[in-house]
């Protein structure tokens, strides 16, 4: 990772990295176990399964839309490490509800826990990016961001695989998830222990842009959620380079929400795969984004730049289009098949490679943009900038999820919704090109 692997040996980075790793691991362990249990073990309707998958994604995202302004203000106002410890303690309580839902096959209880995990991630999200410029040197931020992203998606991979494996089918055909319930509790406890070693990260003493820019939000807390959200987004989005960067990231995550919601129904109802194939799809996606994070850091050699964003978005779109073509030409199996049978099909590996390309080029697209957000604003405003980005991202993701549900209700097939993602990549490519030109013109990277 371009001379930043040494960070994994330092206290200023390693405890945060491991805390983030365990959080992402647990998120996906619980979500995957829940989705597999519901889709394969509880529901039997294709429409129900698609609606549940979209609803689960929307509920997890909703707290980012509602509470990001509050989380960003808190992260800039008090020691970020105190917030990390508070949210990791809360994770233990949340996972008690999640474990109960898994044990009792109680869908509402599982959805409540999932929404609470969204709240947990909302408050942790701004910190994991905003703390990096505070603890790392300027030439380490891109590499550190890439390490966090790569580690996050490796954690997603591990959590996804384990979540799929721990949903077990018994001899009578029923599904149960006792081991998954125990695992989510143990990982939450481990995360709370590790976060105790994250170094202090008090509010930055660097001057805030609000001093020189009356449109920027003033330091302090505004507890009115709606007003604070509007003020934060307005103050951030009026800066042209931040506006373009946030819009590019938002289109990326809107497409990601559509893809993530469609993976389990796509595997089961189009490719005829069982839960092992669904787990493979999610795992391949995680590996691809992690690899993309490494590749883009190597290409940019530590420089924070958007110059590879347009081509990355276009290549991602081409891979999604290939996935669409392969899906409409797929011959359905008479019954659900496992990973080995799926890959034995002539077009099985091309499907996996297309999905891998989507994820790899997606990682190459989005990682530099996050580094851009945290390095082109004063340190006193990094958390609020990330929070504003999260609000817009969440709105785009909720919008994409709602559109997906509406299209499904109107009879649009799962395969056809992939074309929506292809269109989104074209918009992302245009925004990436515009951001790079704006940066070049302004003299930034």
Overview of this protein structure:
Helix content is 76%, strand content 1%. With 445 residues, the protein is mostly helical. It has a two-stranded antiparallel ribbon. Helix 1 packs antiparallel against helix 6. The radius of gyration is 21 Å and the shape is globular.
List strands and helices in order, with pairings:
Elements lengths: L13 H28 L4 H32 L2 H25 L2 H29 L5 H25 L2 E2 L5 E2 L1 H18 L29 H13 L2 H30 L5 H26 L8 H20 L10 H6 L3 H28 L6 H28 L4 H29 L3
Antiparallel strand pairs: 1-2
Helix pairs in contact: 1-3, 1-4, 1-5, 1-6, 2-4, 2-7, 2-8, 2-13, 3-4, 3-6, 4-5, 4-12, 4-13, 5-9, 5-12, 7-13, 8-9, 8-12, 8-13, 8-14, 9-12, 10-12, 10-14, 12-13
How many helical stretches? Answer: 14
How do the SSEs run, as a string of H and E?
Answer: HHHHHEEHHHHHHHHH
Largest sheet: 2 strands, antiparallel
State the helical fraction. over 70%
What strand order characterises the main sheet?
A: 1-2
- Structural class designation: mainly alpha
The shape, in one word, is: globular
Mean pLDDT: 81
Instruction: Report, as a whole number of angstroms, the end-to-end distance.
Output: 19 Å
Spans of at least 5 consecutive residues with low confidence: 207-218
Total strands: 2
